[in-house]
Specification:
The protein has one domain (2-311): UDP-N-acetylmuramoyl-L-alanine:D-glutamate ligase. The chain is 32% helix and 22% strand. The chain has nine helices and 15 strands. The strands form three sheets. It has a nine-stranded mixed beta sheet, with helices on both faces.
Length: 317
């Protein structure tokens, strides 16, 4: 089982320029980076659970119903009366999203460290952390405690997924990245993330630093140009992107992360030792699969992640 943790919200997509300036048409879709990863894994046929706080408001009830529909295990959810986080999303002409968050005091930002379970079932093989829930308190401290508690026993996956509109102090992001990478088996970030937190640095130098800090496998996505990765054993691979018609890029990075995790699991490499020892061919195949999965999401509106059939994969046994 995979366990994903943190953000659980609604993305509310704004329509075009309405004739009536006093109105805005909104189309809502459940989102949150780690929740998208859980969705991606579940749609690829893997047992997946979620850990966060969920509101009893309209949006929170929809989030629970969504998890039920998609087969995401809810046993680790914490109930709260706090409101659900909302993200207002507007798209550029190229389909690149801009986010404006309504997030102060909301459900997924209110996990206390003492609410972290002291133990998890043996079935939980891997735990994924990502995005604003790793830097906004008290949830950041709760997830930090969880990562420290479990990293020696389970595969830890981490995507900083920088959201400077929520936490504009990039030193906080850098500090959290520095504290989390040594606990992680897999670290994945986008080129845009690196430009924000490590301006002027090359992708290759950041990957090398993350491997030196303790990550077994470090990956950076390069948008339309594909992805690059490095392993603890010294293997480095770069794969190209795919030519598609882009609807938008919402959820692309989360799809990539879910595909990496699913690919590692299905190949028998879901351990720090195995992931850090991938040879060039295996690593190239893994990145190529993740790029292909992310391209499907980019061809759709919103975080509509692919299922196995979309990727011509047979059902899991």
């Amino acid at each position: 089982m995979f366990l994903s943790c943190g953000d659980a919200l609604f993305d509310l997509f704004a329509g075009g320029e309405e004739a009536d300036v006093a109105s805005i048409a909104l189309s809502g879709r459940i989102g949150g980076s780690p929740l998208n990863v859980a969705l991606g894994l579940a749609r690829l046929g893997h047992s997946t659970a979620y850990f966060t706080k969920v509101s009893g408001d309209l949006f929170g009830r929809r989030i629970r119903a969504f998890m039920e529909c998609e087969g995401i295990d809810q046993q680790f959810l914490i109930n709260t009366d706090r409101n659900t986080t909302l993200a207002m999303v507007s798209l550029s002409s190229a389909g690149t999203p801009r986010y404006d968050f309504y997030i102060e005091g909301t459900a997924d930002r209110s996990i206390e460290p003492n609410e972290v379970p002291s133990a998890f079932p043996d079935a939980v093989e891997a735990i994924h952390f990502a995005s604003y829930s790793t830097v906004t308190e008290p949830t950041a401290s709760a997830l930090s405690r969880l990562a420290a508690q479990e990293h020696s026993r389970r595969f830890i996956s981490y995507d900083p997924n920088i959201r400077a509109s929520i936490e504009p102090d990039l030193d906080i992001w850098r500090s959290r990245i520095g504290a989390t990478v040594p606990l992680a088996s897999l670290v994945k970030a986008s080129e845009e993330d690196l430009e924000q937190v490590y301006p002027g640095r090359t992708v290759e130098s950041v990957l090398a630093d993350w491997i030196s800090a303790g990550a077994a496998l470090a990956v950076v996505t390069l948008g339309e140009h594909g992805a690059i990765a490095a392993t603890r054993s010294g293997v480095s691979v770069r794969v190209p992107g795919r030519s598609i018609t882009v609807a938008d890029t919402v959820g692309a990075g989360d799809t990539f992360q879910a595909a990496l995790l699913a690919g590692l699991k299905e190949a028998g490499h879901l351990s720090a030792e195995a992931a850090g020892s991938l040879n060039e061919e295996a690593l190239g195949d893994l990145l190529g699969f993740a790029v292909r999965a992310a391209a499907i999401t980019c061809s759709r509106c919103g975080a509509d992640l692919p299922r196995r059939a979309d990727l011509d994969l047979p059902p899991l046994a």
